[in-house]
Design a protein that fits this description.
The protein is 33% helix and 13% strand. The protein has 230 residues and is an alpha/beta fold. The chain folds into two domains: 17-108, Type I PLP-dependent aspartate aminotransferase-like (Major domain) (Aspartate Aminotransferase, domain 2); 111-224, Aspartate Aminotransferase, domain 1, CATH 3.90.1150.
Length: 230
């Protein structure tokens, strides 16, 4: 397997089509991790993927009361793989119970997902990293993600001090190492990942009103310009 830069540090879109070519002729299975690309905006099966992993915690849960991931397989592999996957998950015990399954279903609504998307695109600033800002790559991006872009973006601050301070000045954005539920979150990656740049913030935008999110960021930026009281 090839070593790649950590995607959680800089949420930048990469072209997927070329990466499928080296694996398939050798008989390897192609597994696509769509933790940052929500269900519905991409179709890796169209690129000959064998399995897709989704974050149920972020996109199916909603209130941080659900911890799960999902595996999707194409219809042509259902007969050969579904029973084996079901047996393995049952034996290992890593399956959702009935209440968690109900939580998954009841929160799986298009309006929530669309709100996530709209907010993520509208909340970008000039010092942001997000697939929607990759103008030079837009030809293959629109083909690879025809239904929009993900809700996670990266913000670069001018200094490490500003980066650390901003997370404590916001009201709506909670500082946590998570992709969030129905609340937006912000994270100073350096705190848990020493290899991340000290000025990088990861922002996961959720369903709050876009004007409220903008106002929260604006007051945070303005607060950083005020003298620090001891």
């Amino acid at each position: 397997m090839r070593s790649t830069p950590k995607p959680h540090s800089t949420p930048r879109a990469k072209q997927a089509a070329s990466s499928t070519l080296p694996t398939k002729p050798r008989g390897a299975y192609l597994v696509v991790d769509l933790t940052f690309g929500r269900p519905g905006i991409q179709d890796p099966f169209a690129l000959d993927a064998d399995t897709i992993m989704h974050s149920g915690t972020k996109y199916f849960g909603g209130h941080n009361d659900l911890l799960c991931g999902t595996l999707s397989i194409p219809p042509e592999r259902e007969e050969a793989w579904l029973k084996r996957l079901h047996e393995q998950r049952t034996i290992l015990g890593s399956v959702l119970d009935d209440s968690e399954n109900a939580t998954c279903l009841v929160r799986w609504i298009a309006e929530f997902l669309k709100s996530v998307e709209d907010n993520a695109m509208k909340s970008t600033v000039s010092a942001a990293r997000h697939a929607s800002l990759q103008d030079a790559d837009m030809d293959w991006l629109r083909e690879q993600t025809p239904n929009g872009f993900g809700p996670v973006l990266g913000l670069e601050m001018k200094t490490e001090g500003m980066t650390r301070r901003l997370t404590g000045l916001l009201d709506l954005f909670q500082h946590a190492t998570s992709l969030g539920g129905v609340e937006s979150q912000i994270e100073w990656r350096r705190l848990i990942d020493p290899s991340s740049r000290p000025t990088l913030l990861r922002v996961s935008v959720s369903v709050e009103h876009i004007d409220d999110l903008k106002a929260d960021l604006l007051q945070g930026f303005e607060s950083m310009l005020q003298p620090t009281r001891v």
